[in-house]
Amino acid sequence: MKTLLMGGLIALSLGGIAVAQEAQRGPRAADADGDSRISQAEFVAAAMQRFDSGDANRDGTVTAEEMRAGMEARRTERRGEMFARMDANGDGAISRAEFDARPQRGGDAERGGRRGGHHGWRRGGRGHGGGGELAADGVTRAEAQTRAESRFERMDRNNDGFLTQEDRQGRGGRGHGDRD
How many whole angstroms separate alpha carbon 178 and alpha carbon 132? Predict the structure, then answer.
């Protein structure tokens, strides 16, 4: 069970296109040269950057404990960002008027839900495949790199060596985490 949990946590953290960089998030964050497509080198570099940020003790292995701590830190950061957006006057409190004026996300705005706001990414695992069972002592940097390379190959639907919007559109078959 612990091994399976670790596999899921690793898949959440290391899976997919770069998720957290300072200026932008999402698929464009991995596009280092800004050409609107992501090469395998850009994809793997972004995954390795995420791996390194998760390796709190810098021993070359990310453990389940490091994963949980990193996920909690990101969750706390997102909550703080959301609060700051809602606190329009910056007084440290959200008034009823500020709460009512908050922008709604996704296609289910009238219910305040997030439906449609994920742009095709599945809840929980962001639609990434993989993970499988891992050794109880964590995942090494070399293992993470190999997984990132394999993930890129699965996601590159037309095998042109780049991830583009077209690769993301038709996720059936070999798209985001679907296995061959």
Answer: 13
- End-to-end Cα distance, the chain: 26
Q: How far apart are CA 54 and CA 159, in angstroms?
A: 30
Short-list 167, 138, 136, CA closest to 13:
138
Over the range 68-82, which residues count as b (16 or more CB within 10 Å of their CB) and which as e? Answer: eebeeeeeeeeeeee
In this model, does residue 125 exceed pLDDT 50? Answer: no
Amino acid letter, residue 6:
M
DSSP label of 121: P
Going by pLDDT thresholds of 50, 70 and 90, the confidence category of residue 142 is: very high
Contacts of 52 (CB under 8 A, 6+ apart): 141
What does the pLDDT average to over 103-126? 46
